[in-house]
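Reviewer 2 asked us to include a model.

Predict the structure of this chain.
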Amino acid sequence: PQAQGIGILQPVFQITDPYLNLFRGIIPPIFGLDLSPILAFVTLNLLQSSTVSLAAEIPKEMRERMEMGKRKMGGFGMVH
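Predicted model (structure tokens):
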């Protein structure tokens, strides 16, 4: 709460608070210490790990089609 008064940090709070507020209702502050960022980081890490593992399981045929699409788009989203 004290850091929220620092003007240069306002954009950081505007970006992170909506996500952290999801977890603040689950874990109440303990001795005035907000532990919700720990749960938020763990959740992001699990989501990242599961996304990476799903991407690793893309069938060979689909990977080939994706590579063909990248070549057509030139890798930058522009048709040659």
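The radius of gyration is 20 Å. The chain is about 60% helix and 0% strand. We have added this to the supplementary material.
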